[in-house]
Specification:
Helix 3 packs across helix 4 and helix 3 packs parallel to helix 7. It is elongated and about 50 Å long. The chain contains nine helices and no strands. It is about 75% helix and about 0% strand.
Length: about 160
């Protein structure tokens, strides 16, 4: 309702039906709370995407499908989608880069593609944030861009 950056711990506590002291027992501040939320949602979305794309043998095709499913998952959940609205997108990107869950899920997704997984996961987060903040014309357009621009970069990672 207020946006990520405008929602303080007092509001979170009130909405959770507890005191601020209770919230602070679990989270030492908003950054910790944000990271916990990003980890939870990344795990929820990522595990479903990985399970649904596991049967795709071609690693590059699997990446395209997983990214398309991730975009749809974020866009279709109003609470998650709130993180990609301006000015919240900076917080979301920072949290995604700090998230061990995002890194682990990204590494699993990129298994078999080759190259430096850690840096490529960070780059794929940027690609996703870009598509979320500046969408393509439609899903076909986004899929074509992923195939034309993302897949060749991943293919090039094998040659290095």
């Amino acid at each position: 309702e207020r946006g990520v950056s405008s929602t303080g711990m007092a509001v979170v506590a009130r909405e959770a039906g507890c005191s601020r002291a209770t919230i602070y027992r679990y989270f030492d501040g908003r950054r910790s709370l944000h990271l916990a939320y990003v980890n939870r949602e990344a795990r929820r979305i990522g595990l479903r995407v990985l399970a649904e794309t596991a049967s795709i043998e071609d690693p590059r095709e699997r990446v395209v499908e997983a990214l398309m499913m991730s975009l749809l998952s974020v866009r279709s959940d109003p609470t998650v989608a709130a993180w990609i609205q301006l000015p919240e997108v900076g917080i979301a990107a920072e949290m995604a880069h700090a998230s061990e869950v995002v890194n682990a899920l990204g590494s699993a997704l990129l298994d078999g593609v080759g190259g430096d997984t850690t840096r490529r996961v960070r780059w794929l987060v940027r690609v996703l944030v870009s598509f979320l903040t500046v969408p393509g014309v439609d899903a076909d357009d986004e899929r074509a861009m992923l195939q034309e621009f993302v897949v060749p970069v991943l293919q090039g990672a094998d040659a290095r």
